[in-house]
Design brief:
Blueprint lengths: L3 E2 L1 H6 L6 E5 L9 H8 L1 E2 L2 E3 L22 H10 L7 E5 L5 H12 L5 E4 L2 H7 L4 E2 L19 E2 L1 H10 L3 E4 L3 H4 L17 E2 L15 H7 L9 E4 L6 H10 L5 E4 L2 H5 L14
Helix pairs in contact: 4-9
Length: about 280
């Protein structure tokens, strides 16, 4: 798989100075937990990137719960972590790669191609008995030059247009009951964007939270064509990202993230809402 590396490969290549490891552990509803776990133990050489401080900016009236980060700030932190155009970056978390996938997408948006996700994440690393440390790494700063890929990002205005024109496909990555509006425990309004297909993000993974084989992913997205224009969303632009990774694995080239997602959509009173399952 072109976007995924396994723990054995990472362990065998840990001495490679061209590799940077990024710890993205984060627990929704418990913001300090991921950093506290990082301080306790992490893969040697890993730098910590926080979902809400680094991979997103502060929530406002519109933009969703995890809006786009301030790009100058994330670019500066990437440089401080010793990342430039020649660096291979491997991200991991302990939440089924949801946070790591957000990091992966963000680097793709910034134009960095050499970014990967650790298969099975930190849990898989520990299960193999590979070493961890509490030592905070120190490296020389490099210059990270962004090359923004605007075609990877969508917003509420484009999504509203698509509802009318149907020129693109909408994918909702939340679990089915939230998509159907039956069990909304996070956002103030329940339901989904009209016309959206429901593809729960965790179905990209097996029971061990490792990525499914390419053939399985092909079967999962078999109703779509590789030249389709697709916009993926979730609750706040995080769990949509594993679906985007999977589609990229399959060669889909016109896939965008609606980064504000459902938590942005519902802040506009005139935006339509659908409930139940789409036929």
């Amino acid at each position: 798989m072109k976007n995924i590396v396994n723990v054995d490969w990472l362990y065998e290549n840990m001495g490679d100075p061209s590799i940077r490891i990024i710890d993205c552990r984060f627990e929704l509803g418990n913001p300090g937990h991921g950093f506290n776990q990082y301080i306790k133990e992490h893969i040697s050489g890993a730098f910590y990137f926080d979902l809400e401080k680094d991979l997103a900016s502060r929530a406002k009236e519109h933009g969703g719960r995890h809006p786009m980060p301030e790009l100058d700030r994330i670019i500066d932190k990437l440089g401080a972590a010793g990342i430039d155009a020649n660096t291979k970056v491997v991200a991991y978390d302990d939440q089924g790669s949801m946070m790591a996938a957000r990091f992966w997408w963000l680097l793709k948006y910034l134009g960095h191609e050499k970014v990967y996700i650790l298969d099975g994440g930190f849990k898989n690393w520990l299960s193999k008995g590979y070493p961890v440390t509490d030592e905070i790494p120190s490296v020389s700063r490099k210059e990270f030059k962004a090359n923004i890929q605007h075609g990877l990002l969508s917003d509420v205005y484009e999504v509203k247009e698509i509802i009318e024109t149907k020129k693109a496909i909408l994918i909702d990555s939340r679990i089915e009951d939230r998509y159907a509006g039956k069990n909304e425990t996070i956002d103030k309004k329940a339901g989904h964007i009209p016309g959206a297909h429901n593809y729960f993000w965790k179905n990209c993974l097996n029971a061990q939270e490792e990525w499914k084989a390419v053939d399985d992913l092909k079967d999962r997205f078999k109703k779509f064509k590789k030249d389709d224009e697709i916009i993926v969303y979730c609750g706040s632009g995080v769990s949509a990202c594993p679906n985007i990774v999977a589609l990229d694995e399959l060669g889909f080239e016109h896939v965008k993230l609606y980064v504000g997602s459902w938590s942005d959509w519902i802040t506009y009173e005139d935006n339509p809402i659908a409930v139940g399952l789409e036929k």
